[in-house]
């Protein structure tokens, strides 16, 4: 976070400048620790700083959720349907997600509804509708699998969970 961002927190609310100053000070400290860390440092040092930043991210995520819930409660209590700050309009919205209840049942229903029109059914699939591991097991032939899937390999350091980016593995649990 550049130093210019310090000013965004000083907007007249009693608590906000104190929090902004604390965040700016913390940001400078973290950036200083990272930039001063020599590439020849012990791996432990990289790990400790990374773990600390992961914990800060967890805190920030929890804080954002808390203030969002409180803001929604406040808007509802005050009967406010939207808030405009600068050029940004904030309003209480909803996010809908859908999950197939029974894949086989859905496929059968689509086959019946479309009269077996394969192209119509394909239009209902998302771009990554097929699980590559399950398809590989079905084909049992690597060449057949390779005809239908492409692999994109990106270098990173792993942390034990199936996520992109820096990752780790606990040797106590490796066979």
Task: Provide the fold topology.
Layout: H1 15-36, H2 43-78, E1 82-85, E2 88-91, H3 103-114, H4 118-122, H5 132-139, H6 142-148
Antiparallel strand pairs: 1-2
Indicate the overall shape.
Answer: flat
Averaged pLDDT, please?
A: 79
Number of strand elements? 2
Total helical segments: 6
Structural class based on helices, strands and sheet pairing: mainly alpha
Helical amount among residues, as a percent range? Answer: 40-55%
Kindly estimate the percentage of residues that lie in beta strands according to DSSP. under 5%
Radius of gyration: 25 Å
The largest pleated sheet is described as:
2 strands, antiparallel
Ends: how far apart? 42 Å
Q: Point out poorly predicted stretches.
A: 1-10, 163-167
Instruction: Describe the oligomeric state of these chains in a short phrase.
Output: single chain
What is the number of domains? 2
* Topology as a string of helices (H) and strands (E): HHEEHHHH
Please give the order of strands in the largest beta sheet.
1-2
């Amino acid at each position: 976070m550049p130093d210019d961002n310090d000013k965004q927190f000083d907007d007249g609310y009693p608590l906000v400048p104190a929090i902004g100053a604390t965040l700016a000070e913390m940001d400078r400290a973290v950036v200083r620790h990272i930039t001063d860390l020599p590439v020849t440092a012990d791996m432990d040092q990289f790990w400790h700083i990374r773990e600390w930043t992961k914990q800060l991210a967890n805190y920030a995520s929890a804080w954002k959720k808390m203030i969002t819930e409180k803001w929604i409660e406040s808007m509802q209590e005050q009967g406010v349907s939207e808030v405009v700050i600068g050029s940004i309009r904030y309003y209480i919205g909803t996010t809908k997600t859908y999950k197939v209840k029974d894949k086989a049942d859905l496929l059968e229903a689509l086959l019946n509804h479309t009269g077996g029109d394969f192209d119509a059914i394909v239009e209902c699939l998302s771009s990554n509708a097929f699980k590559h591991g399950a398809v590989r097991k079905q084909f049992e032939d690597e060449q057949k699998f390779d005809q239908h899937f492409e692999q994109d390999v990106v270098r990173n350091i792993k942390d034990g969970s199936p996520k992109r980016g820096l990752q780790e593995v606990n040797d106590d649990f490796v066979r």
